[in-house]
Request: fold
Amino acid sequence: MKKRILITGGSGFIGSHLCKLYLSRGYEVISILHDEAPITSSKLLGIHDDITWCKGDLLDETFAKRVVAHYEVEEIAHLAALPIVRVGTRTTIPIFQTNIMGTINILEAAKEQKLSGYKIRMLYLGTDKEYGYSPSQEPYTEETPLSGLNVYDASKACADLCCRCYFHSFHVPVTIVRACNTFGPADTNSRIIPNTIKRCLQGKPPIIFNGITYVREFIYVDDTCEAMALVLDDIEKTQGKAYNVGSGAWMDQEECVNRILKFFPEMKAERHEPPPYTRIEIPYQKLNTERIEKELGWKSKTSFEEGLKKTIQWYRENMSKIA
Reply:
């Protein structure tokens, strides 16, 4: 029988790439579908029909437990979340419910399997935004306090803490990856890299927001997925721990846009006044990745330029599907 993995958030950007990785490994991939959308990352990558979709809501504890038990999954990668900082300025309760209680329900399902004597291992995908802004501890190590204060940041930090709680209180074998800003093909979210690429391909000038000097770290999606798989594979060593996953490609929005424009020499950026939500963004995010490098031998393989080249090529070939 094929190995089975539940990947929550499998229709989303990073989740679909992780599904693709595990499908290439010969796994049966199960995921959860809450909303039916005409365009999803899993559809854009051509793997949607290769995934077993369970239609339901992660906020339904009984549903989460049924999926894990019915499909006899031995591995869980929990990526499902409401992931956009901007959305947190418009609505609060759904983000806390989904990102915290959805995680707790998956943890409960994993705990139930363990207590029943079945094998289970779990990974939770966190984010560098959980650290908030700690200027005295740059770049952030896994021991840096989680100080995220925006709605999304705080919700992810709470879920992260819940995962460590279930490991220490109930011995659920769960591990955590805190990744930096991930980019690559088939990203349907509104983020600086896909937005800039799409505008250039549409003949529209990309946008640089005045006065926004925030520093972000960017990593290509294949590297993020390989790190997650490695951490999950070695659960005996990684359980109960968190691992930063970054690339060392640190830059502000202007440098990011200008590096994309090297692939579009005919285009020039326009300067706009920033939208209100950018005023509460974290000013600085850099990750120290020594733990995963020393313990597991992982290091990002894809340079920022190489990742951009692959991403731009994908969008050139697929703009008709997402326009």
Remarks:
- The radius of gyration is 19 Å.
- The domain at 184-216+249-285+302-322 is CATH 3.90.25.10 (UDP-galactose 4-epimerase; domain 1).
